[in-house]
Amino acid sequence: MKAVLTVFCLLVLAVMLASTVFASLHQDVLTALRMLWPDPWFRATLADTYFAFLFFWFWLAWREGSPLGALFWLILILALGNFAMAGYVLLELRRCSSVDDLFRRKVRPTSKTGLS
Questions:
Q1: Are 73 and 88 in contact (CB under 8 A)?
Q2: Rounded CA gap, 70 and 11, in Å?
Q3: pTM
Q4: CB–CB of 102/93 below 8 Å?
Q5: Distances (CA, A) of 51 to 14, 58, 98
Protein backbone atom coordinates (compact mmCIF):
# COMPACT_ATOMS: atom_id res chain seq x y z
CA MET A 1 0.00 0.00 0.00
CA LYS A 2 2.94 2.34 0.57
CA ALA A 3 3.86 1.97 -3.08
CA VAL A 4 0.29 2.69 -4.20
CA LEU A 5 0.11 5.84 -2.06
CA THR A 6 3.53 6.96 -3.25
CA VAL A 7 2.55 6.55 -6.90
CA PHE A 8 -0.76 8.31 -6.27
CA CYS A 9 0.97 11.28 -4.59
CA LEU A 10 3.48 11.53 -7.42
CA LEU A 11 0.61 11.40 -9.92
CA VAL A 12 -1.20 14.20 -8.04
CA LEU A 13 1.97 16.31 -8.11
CA ALA A 14 2.50 15.69 -11.84
CA VAL A 15 -1.11 16.40 -12.82
CA MET A 16 -1.31 19.50 -10.63
CA LEU A 17 1.97 20.81 -12.04
CA ALA A 18 0.90 20.19 -15.64
CA SER A 19 -2.55 21.71 -15.16
CA THR A 20 -1.16 24.72 -13.29
CA VAL A 21 1.44 25.41 -15.98
CA PHE A 22 -1.16 25.00 -18.74
CA ALA A 23 -3.62 27.32 -16.97
CA SER A 24 -0.90 29.89 -16.23
CA LEU A 25 0.13 29.98 -19.88
CA HIS A 26 -3.49 30.59 -20.84
CA GLN A 27 -4.34 33.25 -18.24
CA ASP A 28 -3.01 34.59 -14.95
CA VAL A 29 -4.81 33.56 -11.78
CA LEU A 30 -5.99 37.07 -10.82
CA THR A 31 -7.68 37.64 -14.19
CA ALA A 32 -9.35 34.25 -13.92
CA LEU A 33 -10.48 35.02 -10.37
CA ARG A 34 -12.13 38.28 -11.46
CA MET A 35 -14.00 36.43 -14.20
CA LEU A 36 -15.00 33.42 -12.11
CA TRP A 37 -15.87 35.05 -8.76
CA PRO A 38 -19.42 36.11 -9.78
CA ASP A 39 -20.33 32.47 -10.53
CA PRO A 40 -21.94 30.89 -7.41
CA TRP A 41 -20.73 27.43 -8.44
CA PHE A 42 -17.15 28.70 -8.49
CA ARG A 43 -17.53 30.04 -4.94
CA ALA A 44 -19.20 26.82 -3.78
CA THR A 45 -16.39 24.72 -5.30
CA LEU A 46 -13.75 26.97 -3.76
CA ALA A 47 -15.41 26.70 -0.33
CA ASP A 48 -15.62 22.91 -0.69
CA THR A 49 -11.94 22.75 -1.64
CA TYR A 50 -10.76 24.87 1.27
CA PHE A 51 -12.88 22.94 3.75
CA ALA A 52 -11.25 19.75 2.41
CA PHE A 53 -7.84 21.37 2.91
CA LEU A 54 -8.78 22.23 6.51
CA PHE A 55 -10.13 18.72 7.10
CA PHE A 56 -6.79 17.26 5.99
CA TRP A 57 -4.93 19.86 8.08
CA PHE A 58 -6.83 18.94 11.28
CA TRP A 59 -5.64 15.36 10.88
CA LEU A 60 -2.11 16.59 10.16
CA ALA A 61 -2.13 18.92 13.21
CA TRP A 62 -3.35 16.08 15.44
CA ARG A 63 -0.68 13.78 14.04
CA GLU A 64 2.18 16.26 14.28
CA GLY A 65 1.44 17.34 17.84
CA SER A 66 3.61 20.44 17.35
CA PRO A 67 1.77 23.78 17.10
CA LEU A 68 4.62 25.35 15.13
CA GLY A 69 4.80 22.44 12.70
CA ALA A 70 1.02 22.47 12.32
CA LEU A 71 1.05 26.21 11.59
CA PHE A 72 3.81 25.73 9.00
CA TRP A 73 1.78 23.05 7.20
CA LEU A 74 -1.44 25.10 7.45
CA ILE A 75 0.23 27.97 5.59
CA LEU A 76 1.60 25.60 2.94
CA ILE A 77 -1.73 23.83 2.47
CA LEU A 78 -3.74 27.04 2.19
CA ALA A 79 -1.21 28.49 -0.28
CA LEU A 80 -0.31 25.40 -2.31
CA GLY A 81 -3.25 23.04 -1.78
CA ASN A 82 -2.74 19.54 -3.13
CA PHE A 83 0.93 20.22 -3.85
CA ALA A 84 1.52 20.61 -0.10
CA MET A 85 -0.78 17.75 0.89
CA ALA A 86 0.82 15.28 -1.52
CA GLY A 87 4.25 16.50 -0.41
CA TYR A 88 3.38 15.94 3.26
CA VAL A 89 2.16 12.40 2.61
CA LEU A 90 5.26 11.59 0.52
CA LEU A 91 7.57 12.87 3.27
CA GLU A 92 5.72 10.88 5.90
CA LEU A 93 5.62 7.71 3.80
CA ARG A 94 9.41 7.83 3.67
CA ARG A 95 9.56 8.03 7.47
CA CYS A 96 6.94 5.36 8.17
CA SER A 97 7.61 1.67 8.22
CA SER A 98 4.00 0.96 7.21
CA VAL A 99 0.92 2.87 6.07
CA ASP A 100 -0.59 2.22 9.51
CA ASP A 101 2.01 4.62 10.93
CA LEU A 102 0.34 7.46 9.02
CA PHE A 103 -2.63 7.10 11.35
CA ARG A 104 -0.64 7.33 14.59
CA ARG A 105 0.43 10.46 16.38
CA LYS A 106 4.10 11.25 16.17
CA VAL A 107 5.86 10.70 19.46
CA ARG A 108 7.68 13.80 20.62
CA PRO A 109 10.86 13.05 22.52
CA THR A 110 10.84 14.08 26.15
CA SER A 111 13.63 16.15 27.62
CA LYS A 112 16.19 14.55 29.91
CA THR A 113 14.76 16.49 32.84
CA GLY A 114 11.33 15.04 32.15
CA LEU A 115 9.81 18.52 31.90
CA SER A 116 8.57 18.52 28.32
A1: yes
A2: 25
A3: 0.81
A4: yes
A5: 23, 10, 28
